[in-house]
Amino acid sequence: MAEEDAEMRAELERLRAENEALKSRDPKALRLQVSKKGCVSIYGIRRFPLSYYADEWDLILGMADEIREFIQQNEGSLKRK
């Protein structure tokens, strides 16, 4: 019985610490996470995460210069938050 109490207290303390860590995190900060399906997900940009498989991210990141140039060329037509 004492061993179960000690385990429950340790688990409770672990959960409290985890809860505090989550509360202290900046809600608007970007963060990465591996999804259940094995995708790389970026949280913090929109309501739902942006999730792509690693090879898709490689394609997107490989176009970084083209994307920046496209944005610059179309600045007048694009909206920003």
Strand content: 5-15%
Order of SSEs, N→C?
HEEEHH
Spatial separation of the terminal alpha carbons = 56 Å
Helix content: 40-55%
As for the number of domains, it is 1
Low-confidence stretches: none
Strand order of the largest sheet: 1-2-3
- The total of beta strands comes to 3
What number is the mean pLDDT?
92
Number of helices: 3
For the sheet with most strands, the description reads:
3 strands, antiparallel
Given helix and strand content, the structural type is alpha+beta
Q: Shape from CA axes?
A: elongated
Any idea what the radius of gyration is? Answer: 21 Å
Structure, described:
The chain is of the alpha+beta class. It has one domain (2-73). It has helices spanning 2-24, 54-62, 64-73, and strands at 31-34, 40-43, 50-52. A three-stranded antiparallel beta sheet has the order 1-2-3. The mean pLDDT is 92.
Chart the SSEs and their pairings.
Layout: H1 2-24, E1 31-34, E2 40-43, E3 50-52, H2 54-62, H3 64-73
Antiparallel strand pairs: 1-2, 2-3
Summarize the structure.
The protein has 81 residues and is of the alpha+beta class.
List descriptors.
alpha+beta, 81 residues, elongated, 52% helix, 3 helices
